């Protein structure tokens, strides 16, 4: 099976712009979770989607949003970018929703906000 | 929300020495997962522990879940340079997993 793929791998934006990141889960996986990873804050949970519905949400402002399509692919959008949004954005897929599922991470999208 | 605290933040060892990272929670955990992230890579699932007092081994890695299900540890015997990376524990918070801050392991040959 192909692994989790994320596009683009690298992105440079300026403050105030918006960005959309894409994640394609492993075939058959219906859950996609998004994480922000920074050196200072570690891995921070953004949200989880399962069967096109947002199941859980972390403590991030409303500028961070996402969605999931019927084929389980997911997108994450960040509007009005701030310098502090520079980070590695990881998505992880799992077969089911819930905390007992092993998560398979993609390679991440490295976002730099100038 | 529920948080898992992980210590130490960094650990530098000589190749062949042992290494241990600890994960603690103020609340009882239904389960705990461990992941490894190599430098420049992404987290990779290592194992899940579910039962009180559970001990699981993977070659030189030993994982333990405390009797009270509030703490866990990962022990590596005789570290090798291939063990370098950051080790994360993750515990449930409602219906999603929250990650500890990670322990970054470096190994001197």
The chain-level mean pLDDT of chain A equals 95
- Overall mean pLDDT of chain B: 95
Helix content of chain B: under 10%
Order of helices and strands of chain A: EEEEEEEEEEE
What is the overall silhouette of chain B?
globular
Provide the low-confidence segments of chain A as ranges. Answer: none
Major pleated sheet of chain A:
7 strands, mixed
The end-to-end distance of chain A, rounded to whole angstroms, is: 37 Å
**Care to count the β-strands of chain A?**
11
Q: Supply Rg of chain A.
A: 13 Å
- The helicity of chain A comes to under 10%
Assembly level: heterodimer
Task: Count the E strands of chain B.
Answer: 11
Helical run tally of chain A = 0
Percentage of residues in strands of chain A = over 45%
Give a quick account of the main beta sheet of chain B: strands, pairing sense, barrel closure. Answer: 6 strands, mixed
Global structural class of chain B? mainly beta
State which percent range the strand residues of chain B make up: over 45%
Order of helices and strands of chain B: EEEEEEEEEEE
